[in-house]
Every structure is written in structure tokens, then in C-alpha cells.
Design a protein that fits this description.
The chain is built from 3 helices and no strands. The chain has 96 residues and is mainly α. The longest helix is centred in the first third of the chain and has 17 residues, at 23-39. It is extended and about 85 Å long. The N and C termini lie far apart (86 Å).
């Protein structure tokens, strides 16, 4: 009896393999997109999003804020530049 008793599961042998997509998440995302497409009527997903933009502008703008950063791209010949300006103003300065 040299075998040691097994106390718990070997977690390296359970669950999905690394890099395997979660099927439940993919199915849910697909179902949400299909439902939104049907809810938009003849205009499909775009129609549904237009309805939501008018009815719920706050949440729609939050969604738009998540999508926009992925859409911005600069021209290789004229790249986007960011300028950060910092001013220190004295409270007693009347010119500020």
C-alpha cells in the first residue's frame, strides 16, 4: 500500500482546454443578435438600434462609447496627434 489517498480533484484535468471558446457565450451572443434583428422589423438590427437610440439615449450612448474607440483610425500620411495642455492658474489672477 504505497499509493497515497487522493484528497481532491486534479484541476488540471477539468474544464475547457486553454484557448477553446465558451460555446454558451457564443450561443447567447448569437441569440441576442437574432432577436434584435427580428425586433428591428424590415430594417433589421440597424432598425432596432435606431429605435433604442431614440427610446433609451443614455444606454445607447454608453454602447456607442464602447464601439467608437475601435472604429477610429488615422491616415498613415497624416497620423492622429494628441496634445495635452496643462495650465496652472493663480486664483488671484484676473486674466484667467
Amino acid at each position: 500500500m504505497t499509493e497515497t489517498p487522493k484528497v481532491g480533484l486534479d484541476r488540471s484535468k477539468t474544464g475547457r482546454a486553454k484557448g477553446t471558446p465558451n460555446k454558451t457565450t457564443a450561443l447567447l451572443k448569437d441569440a441576442i443578435l437574432q432577436a434584435a434583428t427580428k425586433a428591428g422589423g424590415k430594417d433589421g438590427l440597424v432598425g432596432y438600434l435606431e429605435i433604442q437610440a431614440a427610446a433609451n439615449p443614455g444606454p445607447f450612448m454608453a454602447l456607442l462609447g464602447k464601439v467608437l474607440p475601435m472604429q477610429i483610425a488615422g491616415d498613415p500620411d497624416h497620423p492622429l496627434t494628441h496634445i495635452i495642455e496643462r495650465r496652472i492658474v493663480r486664483p488671484s489672477d484676473p486674466n484667467s
